[in-house]
């Protein structure tokens, strides 16, 4: 143990590897929020009038709301007037190919190891890269178009498929849903729109890499994925942000709609800047994610690996409306330093025979605080609904915190609901066993932690599973021992 | 009639004036402070997290008031009908919230028993100063109002190293005279170093139709190496409202074993707060509840591990029938530095009917790393295969279901130990009747 100490200390001191700022000219609004800003965002995007009206309605409602305070998170109050609500990298009017993309942006991706070319050539993943607020490059559009899949920025979708957007946007997360959803509905910058037509199995995994770049620019992504009857799609979302001293606010809204027999798999690896070891800086991540299993036998699966952000407030949920619909939530949340995560899920069972599975693994190290907050509600009409919840917390260090707050509401006697939770540290026995087999303490801990998270990692698509394991190892470097 | 908070304040002030008070102003000051706290807090509503699933509207609508000055009593008050076939060491009887000396017997050696009313009349400052020492002025409006307006209660103190070789009983009997009234009482139970005792508490309504509000705050303090086994059965009338706040404080190597049954009342809530005041203490809580049409039963646990090496185990099970509703909220907190804590909580619910509802919320809040904590909850129904198996062995459907229900609760019922209590519970819960097809509701096949 003594031997590895110095290595660990070096690792503790290691700076956030993805912390660099890309210098690029931006068209950025001055900080502040009022109706004029909402109008200006809408105008800048050339949105239809109804969209502007929706934004204004959301903004006016937001003014009447208070920021929620029930989560186990502490942070200085957010001054919403100090945030700039729009930032767009300057770009040539229309991009034909990657060559036209600002080389600096491409270089950023290279540094992050998610080179678009590489993705294009090797992995068969279509990447809709969201650089700050405006989509600058979209690949594999043609292959997808052949299958009839629409995969584009939401601003483009508003232009090209306004009726689709109008029909589905805010149908899962209405602007009145919560404080941050209202804010997002008013000022969302851009995001991703996916439409999978009936019976189509999306030919490739869809992926968006987010990157928060402009200083003081809140990022308000809006994602809408519609899977028509019998279709199938797997969507990957991965994030990493440059190092900053001021806290950056991120309030995204993700809406999923699954019709009959449709299947949506939504995977996230979140590795935003968590702040430094003194707890300074870092991203505030207040996200509303919700999937609506509208059709019978529809299936929505959320998988998340949360290692970044100073504050995470996120509850990907499923409304299980259809008969035999299935909701899943698999989560690994790691907090170290002064990171705080209050995350979990909601499974609302309305349809008969609806089933849900929740597996949540929380790892708290150093002064990190991790809370699982979940709701399982079985409505009166949900015959034979079934839920199994398992949430485990692993504690590393005597200053960390782990909380578990499940809410279980059952109004139907045919329901079977189970919830199990455990909290403990890495077992001495396991460690001893590994050590006497010749593993170093750090390898042993890493192996045990990987085992702890395996149930969730195996739900991730291949490329992400590898990335997630690496991330976990990097995240916990210096925290164990 | 809905009373306003100022009506409650006025009523409570009148109550305070009517009390014997040779103890001087300081006791009154404390009551007034509690009243002020009530004014600040008001009654809880569903916006408050602890009352999220438990509405107090129905209770407040009843407008329960304090009873008029001690009403006339019959000679025996039907007390003979409720005696247990258990060799008890002593019995303290409360009728309509008042301690009845002539029905009470208790050992004279090693145990000091008195009532709060006596303590107030004699100005027993040592006793009265302990009132509120664990509960404070009150965490909610009800508790504050109780401190401000309590009329009577038991004081039981077990001397050091005294090990009682039989149970003591606290019997709460409510007659039809309390219709429309609230009965705020408090008990103080103190076990000195190394002592050991067993306490059986029962809440019974003489008249099964009477509607009243029994509100009790119990403060239980166990000194080093003391052990208390506490058995509590709430079987009040189906019109009664029942609220119990138990505050338990344990010192080093003390152990509290509580087992609670809540089967009566139209609205019943039990809040149990356990504080480990010194390391190496142990707390065990078991409970069962049975709710039927028009009943709401709520158990709230707050197990707070702030010191190292303490352990706790909680196991609550409930059966829901008719349009009954059950609420369970079990919080385990482990504070910074409370290493080697071990805490396990379990809640299981069996739903027998379509209109029943259960809201269960176990919680873990952990700020130390060397701990083993877990919680589990489940909501389910009778297993068809198990019923089939029993039927294949010749039991009819109803008996089969009854047997399974009884089996479900058996591990809790057994904790009541005494055959008389086990029989009382089994009889009262009437497992066979429980599984009869419901008349007003569609029953599950």
TrEMBL record, chain A:
Superkingdom as given in the UniProt entry:
Bacteria
Checking Pfam families in the record gives: SUFBD_core, SufBD_N
- Alphabetized InterPro entries for the sequence: Fe-S_cluster_assembly_SufBD, SUF_FeS_clus_asmbl_SufB, SUF_FeS_clus_asmbl_SufBD_core, SUF_FeS_clus_asmbl_SufBD_sf, SufBD_N
Q: Where is the SUF system FeS cluster assembly SufBD N-terminal domain?
A: 142-202
Domain SUF system FeS cluster assembly SufBD core as annotated: residue spans: 210-452
Q: Which GO terms describe its biological process?
A: iron-sulfur cluster assembly
Which family does the similarity line name?
Belongs to the iron-sulfur cluster assembly SufBD family.
* NCBIfam families per the UniProt record, alphabetical: PRK11814.1, sufB
This chain belongs to which protein, by name? Fe-S cluster assembly protein SufB
Q: Which organism is it from?
A: Candidatus Thiodiazotropha lotti
């Amino acid at each position: 143990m003594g031997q590895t100490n110095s290595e660990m200390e070096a690792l503790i001191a290691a700076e956030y590897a993805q912390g660099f700022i890309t210098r690029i000219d931006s068209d950025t609004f001055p900080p502040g929020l009022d109706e004029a800003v909402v109008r200006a965002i809408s105008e800048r995007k050339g949105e239809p009038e109804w969209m502007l009206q929706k934004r204004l309605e959301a903004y006016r409602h937001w003014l009447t709301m208070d920021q929620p305070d029930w989560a186990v998170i502490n942070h200085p109050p957010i001054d919403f007037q100090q945030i700039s609500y729009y930032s767009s990298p300057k770009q040539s009017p229309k991009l034909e190919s990657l060559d036209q993309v600002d080389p600096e942006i491409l270089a950023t991706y290279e540094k992050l190891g998610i080179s678009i070319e590489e993705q294009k050539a090797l992995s068969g993943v279509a990447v809709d890269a969201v650089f700050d607020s405006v989509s600058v490059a979209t690949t594999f559009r043609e292959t997808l178009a052949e299958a009839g899949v629409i995969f584009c920025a939401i601003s483009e979708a508003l232009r090209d498929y306004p009726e689709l957007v109008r029909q589905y946007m805010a149908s899962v997360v209405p602007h009145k849903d919560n404080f941050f959803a209202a804010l997002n509905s008013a000022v969302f910058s851009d995001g991703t729109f996916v439409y999978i037509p009936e019976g189509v199995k999306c030919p490739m995994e869809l992926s968006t890499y987010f990157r928060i770049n402009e200083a003081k620019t809140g990022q308000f992504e809006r994602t809408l994925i519609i899977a028509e009857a019998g279709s199938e799609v797997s969507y990957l979302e991965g994030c990493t942000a440059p190092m900053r001293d001021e806290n950056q606010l991120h309030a995204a809204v993700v809406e999923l709609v699954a019709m009959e027999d449709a299947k949506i798999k939504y995977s996230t690896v979140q590795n935003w800047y968590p702040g430094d070891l003194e707890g300074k800086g870092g991203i505030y991540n207040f996200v509303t994610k919700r999937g609506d299993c509208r059709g019978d036998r529809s299936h929505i699966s959320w998988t998340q690996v949360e290692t970044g952000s100073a504050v995470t407030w996120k509850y990907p949920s499923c409304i299980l409306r259809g008969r035999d619909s299935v909701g899943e939530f698999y989560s690994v949340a790691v907090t170290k330093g002064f990171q705080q995560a209050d995350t979990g899920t909601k499974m609302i069972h309305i349809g008969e025979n609806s089933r849900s599975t929740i597996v949540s693994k929380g790892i708290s190290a150093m002064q990190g605080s991790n809370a699982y907050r979940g709701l399982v509600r079985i409505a009166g009409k949900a015959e034979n609904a079934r839920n199994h919840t398992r949430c485990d917390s692993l504690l590393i260090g005597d200053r960390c915190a782990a909380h578990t707050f499940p809410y279980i509401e059952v109004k139907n006697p045919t329901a079977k609901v189970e919830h199990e939770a455990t909290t403990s540290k890495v077992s001495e026995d396991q460690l001893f066993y590994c050590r006497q087999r010749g593993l170093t303490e750090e390898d042993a801990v890493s192996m045990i932690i990987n085992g702890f998270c395996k149930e969730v990692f195996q739900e991730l698509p291949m490329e992400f599973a590898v990335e997630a394991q690496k991330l976990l190892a990097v995240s916990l470097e210096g925290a164990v021992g | 009639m809905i009373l306003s908070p100022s009506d409650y304040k006025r009523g409570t002030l009148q109550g305070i004036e009517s009390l014997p008070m040779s103890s001087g102003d300081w006791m009154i000051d404390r009551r007034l402070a509690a009243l002020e706290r009530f004014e600040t807090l008001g009654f809880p509503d569903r916006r408050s997290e602890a009352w999220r699933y438990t509405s107090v509207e129905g209770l407040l609508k009843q407008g329960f008031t304090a009873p008029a000055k001690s009403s006339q009593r019959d000679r025996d008050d039907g007390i003979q009908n409720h005696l247990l076939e258990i060799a008890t060491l002593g019995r303290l009887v409360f009728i309509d919230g008042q301690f009845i000396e002539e029905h009470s017997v208790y050992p004279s050696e090693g145990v000091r028993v008195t009532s709060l009313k006596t303590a107030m009349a004699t100005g027993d400052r040592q006793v009265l100063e302990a009132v509120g020492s664990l509960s404070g002025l009150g965490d909610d409006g009800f508790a504050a109002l109780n401190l401000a307006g309590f009329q009577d209660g038991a004081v039981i103190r077990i001397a050091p190293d005294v090990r009682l070789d039989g149970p003591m009983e606290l019997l709460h009997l409510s007659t039809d005279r309390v219709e429309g009234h609230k009965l705020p009482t408090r008990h103080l139970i103190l076990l000195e170093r190394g002592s050991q005792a067993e306490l059986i508490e029962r809440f019974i309504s003489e008249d099964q139709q009477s509607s009243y509000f029994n509100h009790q705050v119990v403060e239980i303090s166990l000194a080093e190496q003391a052990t208390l086994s506490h058995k509590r059965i709430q079987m009040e009338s189906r019109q009664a409202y029942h609220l119990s706040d138990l505050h338990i404080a344990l010192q080093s190597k003390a152990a509290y074993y509580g087992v609670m049954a809540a089967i009566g009342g139209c609205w019943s809530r039990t809040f149990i707060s356990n504080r480990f005041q010194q390391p190496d203490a142990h707390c065990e809580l078991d409970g069962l509840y049975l709710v039927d049409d028009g009943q709401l039963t709520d158990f709230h646990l707050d197990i707070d591990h702030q010191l190292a090496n303490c352990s706790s185990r909680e196991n609550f099970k409930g059966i829901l029938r008719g349009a009954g509703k059950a609420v369970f909220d079990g919080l385990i907190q482990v504070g910074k530095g409370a290493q080697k804590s071990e805490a396990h909580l379990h809640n299981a619910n069996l739903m027998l009917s379509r209109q029943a509802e259960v809201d269960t919320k176990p919680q873990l809040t952990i700020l130390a790393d060397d701990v083993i904590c877990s919680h589990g909850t489940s909501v389910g129904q009778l297993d068809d295969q198990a019923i089939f198996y029993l039927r294949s062995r010749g039991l009819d459907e109803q008996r089969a279901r009854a047997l399974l229900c009884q089996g479900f609760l058996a591990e809790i019922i057994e904790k009541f130990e005494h055959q008389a209590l086990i029989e009382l519970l089994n009889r009262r819960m009437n497992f066979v009747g429980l599984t009869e097809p419901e008349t007003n509701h569609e029953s599950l096949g």
